[in-house]
Design a protein that fits this description.
Blueprint: E1 4-15, E2 18-29, E3 33-37, H1 44-52, E4 59-64, E5 67-68, E6 79-82, H2 94-104, E7 106-109, E8 112-118, H3 121-134, H4 150-162, E9 168-172, H5 180-197, E10 200-205, H6 208-214, E11 217-222, E12 225-230, H7 232-237, H8 242-247, E13 252-260, E14 263-266, E15 269-272, E16 282-288, E17 293-296, E18 303-312, E19 317-323, E20 326-332, E21 341-346, E22 351-355
Parallel strand pairs: 3-10, 3-11, 6-9, 9-10
Antiparallel strand pairs: 1-2, 1-4, 4-5, 7-8, 11-12, 13-14, 13-16, 14-15, 16-22, 17-21, 18-19, 18-21, 19-20
């Protein structure tokens, strides 16, 4: 069983009288890779700064290993931070950048405990080389930092933070300055480093792919509150509300009625599903992921609609289909031209039913999708053509 390492208890924070964190409660386990995920301004970076000691909350407690650390300065916490700007020393080579923190350390002199002494050079060298190995930069110790790629510079910054042997590493959008391919490579590299060094990583991002790729646990935030906590699989497959469903991946979010357990109604037609625990005829939000929709001949469709936009994405087509004025996104390897009338089929495990929330009605319609691709001409559904 995982051991709890950090607990945030009833945290509140405000800037200029605007509430940024609203009674936030969260615990983080030892050796866990936890990601704070949400849009800009949701409070995720503020949460990270409070954990690191760079910001003090207006109220609430930060507990580390059961001890309240609100008043402990950053340099006395067993926590290090890697920011988006790596702040490497350009006049020092890779080895000295990583060794910098170790050279600042002092420990009691074995000969006279009242005196402080520097770390032995042999220990510094051993720990730096250990970190270079961990971040796959062995042999780079004499390189200038300005001669490194962005990904290599990031790994130097991570090694510099890890060489002091913290129990927690905070990472505030560290991949933001990298190009797409390097970001994808570094997602895998960061997870590998975390598993190798065996400490807790707390990662902040607004990028859902980063969160899904690396995390053991994802904390989805909006407007200073936690919307959902879970594994990547739970967050993606079982979103709690329309905000989470929309923010994690693409989603079609439709108004529905839960006729009874395992039977939901949309567009006047009933669909088998796997969900239960709702009241009979309760109004609900229905989430259908674009990849869970099968295109079938019209006569076989549970619903029929008209294709209004097609975008080729390499491995798939993104197809926008109009159902009674509500635009669905379908991701498929089958091409359907603009103007085609198609049927769709959804298996019961492709339908996820959620309680209504304050986010209901705000997401899921792809009416503006075509504007993103400068597709100004669309084909409108024929009158009465949407069958139910």
């Amino acid at each position: 069983m995982s051991k709890e390492l950090i607990r945030l208890r009833d945290l509140c924070m405000a800037y200029d009288d605007e509430l940024v964190l609203d009674h936030l409660n969260l615990y983080i386990n030892d050796k866990e890779f936890l990601t704070l995920l949400g849009p800009s301004g949701c409070g995720k970076s503020t949460t990270l700064r409070i954990i690191g000691g760079f910001t003090a909350p207006l109220s609430g407690d930060v507990l580390f290993d059961g001890v309240r650390i609100n008043d402990v300065p950053p340099y006395k916490r067993q926590i290090n931070t890697v920011f988006q700007k790596y702040a490497l020393f350009p006049h020092l080579n890779v080895f000295e950048n990583i060794a910098f923190g170790l050279r600042m350390q002092r420990r009691p002199d074995p000969a006279d405990p009242r005196r402080k002494t520097k770390l032995p050079e042999e220990e510094i060298r051993s720990r730096v080389l250990e970190m270079l190995e961990a971040v796959s930069l062995k042999g780079f110790e004499n390189r200038r930092t300005d001669a490194l790629s962005g990904g290599q510079q990031q790994r130097v910054a991570i090694a510099r933070a890890l060489v002091n042997r913290p129990k927690v590493l905070l990472l505030d959008e560290p991949l933001g300055a990298l190009d797409l391919k390097l970001r994808k490579d570094m997602q895998i590299e960061l997870k590998r480093i975390q598993q190798q060094v065996g400490i807790t990583f707390i990662y902040v991002t607004h990028d859902q792919e980063e969160a899904l790729t690396m995390s053991d646990t994802i904390v989805v935030m909006d407007k200073g509150t936690i919307q959902q906590i879970g594994t990547p699989e739970d967050i993606y497959n079982e979103p709690k509300n329309a905000f989470v469903a929309d923010f994690i991946g693409e989603s079609n979010i439709i108004d529905g009625v839960m006729v009874r357990d395992k039977l939901v109604q949309m567009y006047g037609r009933q669909f088998p599903c796997l969900d239960g625990g709702f009241a009979e005829n309760e109004a609900v939000d229905v989430v259908i992921r674009p990849e869970d929709i099968d295109i079938v001949p019209v006569e076989q469709g549970q619903l029929t609609g008209v294709v209004t936009n097609v975008t080729f994405k390499g491995m798939q087509y993104d197809i926008i289909v109009d159902f009674r004025g509500f635009k669905w996104l379908i991701q498929t390897t089958d091409h359907s031209p603009v103007g085609a009338r198609i049927g769709i089929k959804i298996d019961p495990d492709g339908i996820h039913v959620m309680k209504k929330s304050r986010y209901s009605g705000m997401y899921g319609d792809y009416s503006s999708f075509s504007d993103e691709y400068d597709e100004l001409d669309t084909v409108e559904p024929e009158e009465g053509g949407d069958e139910t």
